[in-house]
Amino acid sequence: MATDPRDPGESYLAFWREPLQCTLTTLRPDGTPHSVPVNVTYDPAAGIARVLAGRTSTKVRNILAGQRAAGAPDGTPAGAPVSVSQHARGGRWATLEGRAVIRTDPGAVADGERRSTERYGRTPRENPERVVIEIHLTRAMGRA
């Protein structure tokens, strides 16, 4: 089922509040997918999902290599195409798709850490190289 990522319904939101590990898929410069386990937070009101990452990680490098400037001639929004997914027993699954940008400012990183602590019940380990992958959502789908 596809739905509006800003208004996906209560059961979908409840599923995204469960502290489940997720998978982030980015595209390498050669166009092949790179999928890795991550923790994700979802802010439907803002239409944004967030992932904490190390500044030099492959996922961050892939996003930086794939970013487009805002206002591209073809109308594509800024950022690199990515998806995040989670699944659980009983055939429940959810995927969020969008365009990712890297946020390095301390306020965005602190906000990402706070959100991750709320969802997963533990404070992320200290990492002075931390950045936030901010995904501006274009699609939500799943069966929650």
Textual characterization of the structure:
Residues 69-81 have a biased composition (Low complexity). Residues 12-139 form the Pyridoxamine 5'-phosphate oxidase N-terminal domain. This protein is of the alpha+beta class. The protein has helices at 10-17, 58-66, 106-120, and strands spanning 2-3, 22-27, 33-38, 41-43, 48-54, 80-88, 92-103, 130-143. The relative contact order is 0.26. The mean pLDDT is 92.
Question: What is the element layout, followed by pairings?
Answer:
Layout: E1 2-3, H1 10-17, E2 22-27, E3 33-38, E4 41-43, E5 48-54, H2 58-66, E6 80-88, E7 92-103, H3 106-120, E8 130-143
Antiparallel strand pairs: 1-8, 2-3, 2-6, 4-5, 5-8, 6-7, 7-8
> How many domains make up the 3D coordinates?
1
**CATH C-level class:** Mainly Beta
Secondary structure tally: strands: 8
Helix fraction, binned, reads 10-25%
Total count of helical runs of at least 4 residues: 3
InterPro entries: F420H2_bilvrd_red/Heme_oxyg, Pyridox_Oxase_N, Split_barrel_FMN-bd
Domain Pyridoxamine 5'-phosphate oxidase N-terminal: 12-139
Pfam family, one: PNPOx_N
Biased composition (Low complexity): 69-81
